[in-house]
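User: Hi! Is it possible to get a structure for several chains at once, not just one? Here's what I have:
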Amino acid sequence: MDWALVYQELSAVALFPWFFLGITIYLAGHVARGFRTKRLVSRDAHLSLLTASSIVIAGYAANNIIPARVGELIRAGMLSERTGIPASQSLTVVCIERILDGITILLLCAVAVVMTGSHVQPFIGIVPLIFCAALLLLLFVTYAPQRLIAFISKTANIVAPRSHDAILRHAAAVVNGTAYISQPKQFCAMGSASILIWLCDAGLFICIMQIFNITLDFWQVLLIMTIANLGVFIVMSPGYASPGYIGTFHVLVMQNIVALGYSQSIALACAITLHCAIYIPIMLWGGAVVLWYGISLGLKLSLARKARPLETSLAHIPETKIIGKQSVSALDEHATRFMYRLTEAALPLNQYELSNPATVVSCCADFIQGEIRNLSKKIQMLFYIGMLGFGTLVCFRYLKLFPELPLPVRIRIFNWWAYGKIPLTRQLFKLIRSTALLSFFEHPDVMRCLEEKNDKRK
Amino acid sequence: MTAHVLAEAGYSVLILEEGRRWALSDYGNNCPEGMKKMYRRRGMTPIMGSVPIGYAEGCCYGGGTEINSGFWHRTPPEILLRWKAQYDLADSYPKDLEPHFIWLEKNLHVSLHGREWPASTRMFARGIEAMDWSYQEVPRVVEGCESLNFCPNGCPSGAKRSMSLSLLPQAEKNGARVLTNCRVKMLIKRNKRITGVLANLLREDGTQELIRIDAEHVFVCCGATETPSLLRRSGIRFHIGDSFRVHPMLKVAAQYNEDINAHKSVMPLLQVKEFWPEISLGGAFFANGHLAMLLSENWPDNNLLMHQYTKMALFYVAVRGTGKGTIRSSLTGEDTTSIRYDLSAEDLRHLSKGLARLSALLLAGGAKTVYPAVYAIEPIADEISAIRWLDQLLPKAGISLTTIHAFSSCPIGERIDRCAADSFGKVYHFDNVYINDGSMIPDSPGVNPQGTIMAFARRNALNFVETNK
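Assistant: Yes, the chains can be modeled jointly so their relative placement is included. Here is the combined structure:
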């Protein structure tokens, strides 16, 4: 390595505009991380985006100066202190974030490998195994929480009966930590946020490479970024563990740039600049956060203790022991647009002179949506699969989404599916037609109309 | 019932109720509102199987008695003898249960309507008399019915002596404490004993807590579907949830020439005894929404009938289910229960015959046309069309069934090879856990089961008090 050349490359660096643009994009990624943290704890605490981002950055800053990812523990501790959620829950939230990050990087890496036709360093091989195992565990805790609680309760009862409640309290906190992603839609949203976060990191790499006139296509940059991040993840190997990933990060970035035909000096200069772009803003922001946090910690802790008195039993039922808080999944009572349009097609609106038919339809649609959301998860899943099939077939047939179709067409389609000759479609639509008609004919406006018609007939 | 007996005997009783406690002023809503407030999963607990069956059960302080019709039957002696023969059910002869029925009938004010029958009942009676079949006006757990027609949504007048107005307040007076909004997740097991339960307690402020409650004895009375589900979730599976039974019910709408106004009166109060216990014919609750649901099987042809709702009434044919059913807790351990019941060939035959007889009866009583809840079958407008179902089977793919009577998922009896608990509800292989609700009934009773369940529950609770002195 010719260090003089490296120095020459570094001294010739023009920081404006790419360096600052890169930092801006990178920090935007951290704000996205903050948003993800905010959402993950949203069931139990209100956290501003600034505070959430600051907590994330403080964790990153700690990782920069302490090895073995101790920063993750500091981040969990701060999250717990700022939100009031138990430490086990905040640690779970941090674990979820890291698992999502790991899986996202692996996916992006796999895509980049396919697109560039490159091969990956063999040490990466263990990382997918670790993350896949972690993801399976996360899915189990998220989608079978009662099984986990039951298993831990049974085990604790045998192994450590005296600590049963304490152990279960932690298990309940872990379950609470995963509560937000228990809805598949929210799980997917968090996955999408993770992709956005890592694309921001790739944005930083692109900007810094522009400084050194390294012209790689997007997939090559993505590959370098993902390999560098997967590499620094491996803290178990002493050869790679270092505070701030100094050395590890540089070697990984440099090797990959050199492999694409650039000189070692340019590659190392680029790696050093990249590291500075990652290190400096994080240390500045993170340092400020830690300082501010340190000053307010003592006071906040004493206030928090006062604000949360420890209740161990219900006053009138002494045999009851409160183990811990549990997340409540509030049901969304409002119908989706698809359900509204479907309901509109199911109701005999033209037979009744309603003063405000839209309100009636809306009321019925909300009722149906609520009923569907109360079905057991298994039946709900079958129903949604059926509806997906229905929507897809309609889309193929009419080249439009069902809600976009005019009402007469929707009525025709609905009647064919709900009252046609195919038992399976009738069965699928039975739930909708039955609940739609039940709520429609029990609606006060419709009952009034019926009564008026009946009076006229007499 | 259990809490009442135990509290009276001086036990420290804690009742854990999953649903909410509603005041009388919260009752008497329309059907959608009633379902939201008082039904488990808002009434969305279908029974899966070869023919899916719509099933609903109460989930509030007072349970199913808040939303049922309050019809009261003593268990038919023949059924009791069958249970003795098949399950070796001890102390279950009619004479053994009689004191319990007498006590319950007195304390719950079980009585006949005592007023002029509403039009739908009169029409039904006319049909029965024309057919010359035996029937009875069914006594109900009601005192001074005002015919408000809110039975399935909570009786706002308080005439129905549901548990929230009768035995539960008495139990509370005797010291029983109640935790509502408290769903038990699992029983905590240690060797052959249950040391307590883990439950979720939903607070008024919307927060929820995981709590542990220690107990000397645990009575599981969560109903025919949730009792086995809870026991299975807790790792108690011996003959639990393997023999679920229901009374499959097919509803029909009858159209008359004159106004019946079924929406303004209590449901028909008579039941045909002629074909008991295999087939039962009677009147069903009427609401415009329920009528629309029934007619929706053939909606394009029938929708205009809604304009004549004042001339319509609803009736049912129910059969003593002989099919096999199972109850399973969900694989993920979540708070949902998989309910399955496969309609037997005998059930279908009885339903077809029942439809023939019910239709003939209604036509003889003055009905113009009968509309069964079966897809693509012609409305029944004459006796010949009705009678053909004596020999033909209803199409399985088109039949729409419902039920509110479920039981037998944890049968009791001395036959350990087929029962989950002994004759008095003590779960086999455990020292201190008991079943005391509809799930313990060994088999379909063929009549409305409230009387049977309560009589057995009282018998078992008193036996517990006696043996644990």
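The mean pLDDT of chain A is 86. Chain A touches chain B through 66 residues (CB under 8 Å).

User: Great, thank you!
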